[in-house]
């Protein structure tokens, strides 16, 4: 089962955070943040997958969807869970008015790339992407 999670579902989201990150604590703050979009996949009481990202409003009045993370437990891969999560995420963005979606993944992440390509995703036309991370100190 795929469920969209919001602030009222913070318990389910925290279970997903604990399942895939091993820590908890920031789920409610994330779910309350503007544009937060998150889904959790369950098999009965077991959390088996999740995805989260943001619906981003642009200055030109258009909007886009950013998928930050999608993960499925090893035991539930190749069963359509990742595809169902991605479809739900994309549908939510489309309903919110987004016309594009972007994400990044590792070049060597063959299973993820195969999923994204099978669903119509294409590599950025402007060439390889270089990501920079900055640590912001208080």
UniProtKB/TrEMBL annotation:
Residues 1-138 form the N-acetyltransferase domain. Signal peptide: none annotated. InterPro entries: Acyl_CoA_acyltransferase, GNAT_dom. The keyword Transferase applies. Transmembrane segments: none annotated. Keywords: Acyltransferase, Transferase. Its EC number is 2.3.-.-. Pfam families: Acetyltransf_1. This is GNAT family N-acetyltransferase. GO terms for molecular function: acyltransferase activity. It comes from Plantactinospora siamensis. The keyword Signal does not apply. It comes from the Bacteria.
